[in-house]
Amino acid sequence: MMTSRAVIYACSHRRGGNSDRAAQWLAAGVREAGGQADILYVRDHEVRPCLACGYCDEPGGRRGRDLCVLGPGDAAWDLFEPLLTARAVLFASPIYFYHLPSMFKTWIDRSQQFWAARAEGAPWLTELPRRTARAVFLAGRPRGDKLFEGATVTLKYFLHNFAMPLDEPLAFRGVDEPDDLTGRTEREAITGLGRHAWEEAS
Ligand SMILES: Cc1cc2nc3c(=O)[nH]c(=O)nc-3n(C[C@H](O)[C@H](O)[C@H](O)COP(=O)(O)O)c2cc1C
Known about the structure:
alpha/beta, five-stranded parallel sheet, FMN, NADPH-dependent FMN reductase, Flavoprotein-like_sf, FMN_Rdtase-like_dom, ISF_SsuE-like
């Protein structure tokens, strides 16, 4: 069942940096549009890496925390649950080596269990309502044609398993020191994205 809240995943390993600020501005935008948002800091959730053991290849009707052999042994499902139930889903993430940060990617790899459940036609997954996800990316380098390409493709196919198309991410370059994201233009763009996400979801 869908909740009446938005969830924002803040994906940096650095506390109090640009992604955290972007997540707060997204939440402010959701509030401006009349909604409520929970910010989840991925770094605060201990997620074990996918073992590539094949256990989830045959879900056989299993669901929830039983889908993965690691089961309830870590916090992966604490992050998945809001992804399945939030009315609006947003991400704020830095770029690390042209990609998503490793803690975030470790969690994404654990979603292989959803890929398998979807392939089996699990109705609790295939019948999820279509929700458009939004992302803000922050990168230290001022240039680079493909700076956001890897992160965008991975996020897009991760979300596909949850029936969520990804809108074109809002991407900022030359944002490196923890306080680099302070401009009014950036703030307006990011809160505007949060506002728009909630308005569209309502
Ligand atoms: C491990 C690591 C790898 C990084 N790789 C890149 C990169 O490939 N390209 C880039 O533009 N910035 C890179 N950066 C810089 C971050 O994207 C930048 O500092 C960003 O603002 C960090 O966001 P945060 O404050 O939310 O942690 C990297 C930073 C770290 C810590």
